[in-house]
Write a structure and sequence with these properties.
Elements: E1 22-23, E2 25-29, E3 35-37, E4 40-44, E5 52-55, E6 60-62, E7 73-78, E8 81-91, E9 104-111, E10 116-118, E11 121-124, E12 129-130, E13 134-135, E14 138-140, E15 147-148, E16 159-160, E17 165-169, E18 201-208, E19 226-231, H1 233-237, E20 255-261, E21 269-275, E22 287-288, E23 292-294, E24 301-307, E25 313-317, E26 326-327, H2 329-337, E27 342-346, H3 374-380
Parallel strand pairs: 1-23, 2-27
Antiparallel strand pairs: 2-25, 3-6, 4-5, 7-17, 7-19, 8-9, 8-16, 8-18, 9-10, 9-26, 11-14, 11-17, 12-13, 14-15, 18-24, 19-20, 20-21, 21-22, 21-23, 24-25
The structure holds 2-acetamido-2-deoxy-beta-D-glucopyranose (8 copies).
One 2-acetamido-2-deoxy-beta-D-glucopyranose binds next to loops.
């Protein structure tokens, strides 16, 4: 194994050309920092034109591995995409690369072929529109995007198109909406469910991201499929809000993009990005790894993301990935070891919390993110390590 380490220093950064390569594994080391965010504490008059929201005056603070995504997360999907399998796991003590550390236990499972659907709830934004919160979540019907009256399993081979989305939560209902409740404050007219807990958590996916077959029409995110995690509080208040005070996203409660097409120019490159204030003040662009995983336009992709007890967040694709009820640490390590190429970025521990708040709060909104020149500026705060195997 040839290890190429590029430690980027402030002064030399602008002259360094970052390697951009296709790999099968993307890893952030040292994910998690000492920081905080502002949860939503009130949603007022949500169907009036005077709709408004309020963030807590006191920030929720956090520190340690994988923060703030050690909190409960929801799992989001954008088309063109077909989901064949999904599984969520927790572990106690898994350390990336250590075969003797914690094994993984499956807590949720969806398998389109067998029809299995355990501990998952599919929601989609087919509800009522609010001028400050946007469209409300509802149960998704079996097509993933229409409204259903109750929790419904996604039909086999369901293709969602460009810019269509659904989200998976657990099947555990939230208690009452309240600042001290188990899910915090949430939009009153949605089916509210818990997300996936755990500092050490893992999600596995078998999916297709087929090429968009229709010519471009008036749609955002044309041919830009993605799978990503949000702090579960975000979609329960407002994922695409028109008001910065209606979501904790802007203040840094966390988003982790696992497999994401960033723009139509690079429509076969799946990037991973963290959106919080670890090592960056630019939450819109976040911190991405400059290498990418190739999108298979015609085949099926299998892979996942694991978060270990040291703050290693690892994204991979490998056809060795299995969705068993129990997965040994050594198996997850062997999937990672089996890849041909990998890229690792070590995050700085520093928090660069935002000073400015714009009027919009838009996790994964609109036209993708602009990466230059702010991408390079962001990288100044990070020490970048590139591994070439
Ligand atoms: C469902 O998932 C949640 C969160 O991962 C977990 O707390 C719960 O125990 C799971 N339920 C079952 C029946 O496994
Ligand atoms: C949640 O999922 C688990 C596992 O499939 C199941 O045993 C349980 O009955 C479900 N609970 C609800 C409320 O649907
Ligand atoms: C929802 O309302 C907002 C603001 O009033 C508006 O900009 C948006 O187009 C509406 N969305 C839909 C799908 O009607
Ligand atoms: C994929 O779809 C895009 C948009 O329709 C098109 O421009 C491109 O040529 C297609 N690529 C392949 C390999 O078919
Ligand atoms: C958000 O809340 C702050 C503090 O209460 C307030 O000053 C600001 O005007 C609010 N922003 C919007 C868009 O409502
Ligand atoms: C597309 O996204 C990649 C990755 O973020 C970026 O490097 C590239 O500059 C973007 N291209 C365009 C045309 O925006
Ligand atoms: C993985 O297996 C699927 C079929 O399950 C296939 O479509 C795909 O091409 C395979 N990927 C690789 C990299 O071998
Ligand atoms: C993990 O699983 C392996 C294989 O099933 C087993 O041998 C090992 O004892 C387990 N380790 C722990 C810490 O439970």
């Amino acid at each position: 194994m040839l290890k190429v380490v590029a430690s980027l220093l402030l002064a030399s950064l602008s002259s360094v050309v970052l390697a951009k390569d296709a790999v099968e594994l993307l890893q952030f080391e040292n994910f998690g920092y000492s920081g905080g965010y502002s949860p939503v504490v009130a949603l007022n008059d949500i169907y009036s034109d005077d709709c408004s929201c309020q963030l807590a005056s006191q920030r929720t603070t956090f520190s340690g591995a994988n923060t703030p995504l050690n909190e409960e997360v929801s799992v989001h999907f954008r088309g063109p995409l077909v989901l064949n399998k999904f599984a969520s796991y927790v572990s106690s003590g898994y350390v990336y690369g250590d075969d003797n550390s914690g094994n993984w236990t499956r807590l949720s499972y969806y398998d389109a072929d067998s029809g299995a659907s355990e501990n998952v709830t599919f929601l989609t934004r087919a509800g009522r529109n609010s001028s400050c919160l946007g469209l409300g979540l509802t149960f998704a019907d079996e097509d993933g995007v229409s409204q259903a009256d109750s929790s419904t399993v996604l039909a086999k081979d369901t293709l969602i198109n460009s810019n269509q989305e659904y989200v998976i939560f657990t099947n555990i209902s939230c208690g009452s909406s309240s600042t001290t409740g188990d899910c915090g404050v949430y939009r009153p007219d949605i089916p509210a469910y818990h997300g996936f807990y755990g500092t050490e958590k893992m999600f596995l996916f078998e999916f297709q991201m087929p090429n968009e077959t229709h010519s471009p029409w008036d749609v955002a995110n044309y041919n830009m499929p993605a799978i990503w995690l949000l702090n579960a509080q975000i979609p329960r208040t407002a994922q695409y809000s028109n008001n910065v005070n209606c979501s904790c996203w802007r203040s840094g409660c966390g988003e982790f993009d696992i497999f994401e097409i960033m723009n139509q120019t690079e429509y076969t490159h799946l990037y991973s990005t963290i959106h919080d204030y670890q090592g960056t003040g630019e939450i819109e662009s976040g911190l991405a790894i400059s290498s990418y995983i190739e999108r298979d336009l015609t085949g099926t992709m299998v892979g996942g993301v694991s978060f270990d007890s040291n703050g290693d967040a690892t994204v991979w694709v490998s056809n060795s990935t299995s969705f068993d009820e129990q997965v040994a640490a050594k198996d997850v390590n062997s999937w990672a070891k089996g890849v041909k190429e990998a890229a690792t970025t070590t995050l700085a521990s520093a928090s660069l919390a935002s000073s400015t708040a714009s009027s919009k709060s838009s996790p994964k909104k609109g036209d993708g993110y602009a990466y230059t020149p702010s991408f390079l500026v962001n990288m100044i705060a990070a020490v970048l390590t590139i591994w070439v195997i």
